[in-house]
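Title: Request for sanity check on ABC transporter ATP-binding protein prediction

Description:
We are preparing a figure and want to confirm that the structure record we downloaded matches what your pipeline produces today. Could someone re-run it with the sequence below and paste the raw structure tokens into this thread? We only need the token string, no images.
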Amino acid sequence: MAKITLSQLRHSYLPNPASPDDYALKQIDHTWQDGGAYALLGPSGCGKSTLLNIISGLLEPSEGQILFDDQDVTHLPPDKRNIAQVFQFPVIYDTMSVYDNLAFPLRNRGRAEDVVRQRVTEIAEMLDVTAMLETRASHLSPDNKQKISMGRGLVRNDVNVVMFDEPLTVIDPHLKWKLRSKLKELHHRVKATMIYVTHDQTEALTFADQVVVMDLGVIVQIGTPVELFERPAHTFVGHFIGSPGMNVLPAELDNGGARFAGVPIPLEGPITGSGQRIEIGIRPEFVSLGSGGVTGRVRKVSDLGRHNVVEAMVGDTRISAIVDGPVPEQGAEVGLTFRQDQTRLYADGWLATEARP
């Protein structure tokens, strides 16, 4: 396994990029520690596949370096980087048995047959496919085919990194949870460095120890799932993480504080920045309905089973609140209050308040 360092990395698909907007991948300086489980999370077109292809060697960056354990591999082809990659669609040989599919990467590297047998047996047990080792791959269900594809990536114990490029895209929703859990279990057992690319926040947050959130070619935040939820460094992270996402409300500065809809809003702590666009961020979990605060009118109530999501309008601004108890009727006037220690100020999208200890 390897520590992976990205140093002053940028990439443009244009031959002569002249401005930051010409870069699909803005400057990145980051290190993935040996043995960690990481997710690259972001919408389509944010640059996560570009970054994965640069790490794997399928794409050479316009600028910067990629280091595996401090060795520069920037200009090495994929077969010289000692990596394994699992793609969106299963990459297996339908005419081979499950056993031979799992054995193929080892046999291709000349491993002794007793080593092959031991490793294939171990991986098959981890994946719960021991009973189908003699089954031809063409007879497998899509989720089992993807299990075998994952197994082919994991069967070698000498790779620097295992990379997963949206591996659950073709899997039925009711089976995704099982495969995510299995992948997390596999990481704990094999201790390989793993990088998981996805646009699905549930996949990223349930798999990774550290999530790298990307938008428009920029890494906007790196953190644990708890850190991303509780303290988004950017309004994009607040929108993208959580269901429903963070409320982002237009605001204005006022004598060291902030106002929304003309009402002073207590913030988590001192304001540390300023910008042309000032906004308040508050997650729906920390919005309460009652008297006082900001006055709104209920637009919609959605019953999600475990709780209700109440959407209220304050002028033209929509605010969502998660409510466990009784809910007001549509059209009712309500007071909206925000839990102070969870109410943050953002300047030009970036966090601009300091949390009180």
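Thanks, this matches our download. The chain has two domains: 4-230, 243-351.
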